[in-house]
Amino acid sequence: MLVIFFATFGAVFIAEIVGDKLLYTTGVLAARYRTAPIMIGMAAAFMAKMGVAVLIGEAISKLPRFLVAAVTAVSFVGVAIALWRKNDEYRHERDQHKAHRAAMISFAAIFFSEWGDVGQVTAAAMAAKYHIALVVWLGAVSAMITKGSLAAFLGAGIRRWIHDRVSPKVVRYVGAGLLLLLGVLSVWEIMSERV
After folding, report:
1. How big is the CA angle at 140 (ends 135 and 142), to the nearest 5 degrees?
2. pLDDT tens digits, residue range 20-68?
3. Residue 144 and residue 192: Cα distance in Å, rounded?
4. SS3 assignment, position 88
5. CA R_g for the chain
């Protein structure tokens, strides 16, 4: 079972790390919000997405491209709007409320985007091959959390660097713009894939 765990971890991690836009999405979120709430939202989203992948198997790769593109577009636009509307004033009492909101935004950005992506398809294939759903799920979720952690900590480092150098309003506008761009690129990639 340990071999299956590490085989799944390696396969999903490599499949996800190469050119995956969600890596950049997590980095953008981490540049705006604290790392811990992003990690919580991200982990919950990865657990749910990989659970679906393992349970449904190959069916997830057969979702209609238009549906996947539409859900991805709505997700990125929704997160961009939430980021755009964020108040730039810093208040210590907001920190308690900001954490749960950052976790929810991170969950939504990750859970509702890129269904049927290479990581989910890889996890589904591993589950179909090995018939040990829990071990495959644990390996896939571990790979996704590892990938997301790298992006979140990189984004947190960027956040600390720009905190004293760039206006929060500029960070907010750039973050929202990047999320919209990533959404457009995701939709374009989904719609241009060959069957």
Report:
1. 95
2. 667 677 777 877 788 889 899 999 999 999 998 888 866 666 677 787 7
3. 25
4. coil
5. 17
Quote the CA–CA distance of 61 and 81 in Å, as a whole number.
29
- Whole-angstrom distance, CA of residue 182 vs CA of residue 194: 20
- Report the chain's terminal Cα–Cα distance, integer Å: 33
Cα dist from 50 to 59, 123, 128, 157, 165, whole Å: 13, 7, 13, 28, 38
Q: Which of left, alpha, beta for 76 (phi over 0: left; psi -120 to 50: alpha)?
A: alpha
Q: State residue 22 phi and psi, 5-degree precision.
A: -65, -25
How far are the Cα atoms of 21, 34, 96, 144 from residue 152, in angstroms, in the given order?
13, 9, 20, 12
Cβ proximity of 147 and 16 under 8 Å: yes
Backbone dihedral region of 112: left (phi > 0), alpha (psi from -120 to 50 degrees) or beta? alpha
DSSP string, 41-85: HHHHHHHHHHHHHHHHGGGGGGS-HHHHHHHHHHHHHHHHHHHHT
pTM: 0.67
Q: How far apart are CA 151 and CA 30, in angstroms?
A: 8
Return d(Cα 122, Cα 13) in angstroms, integer.
10
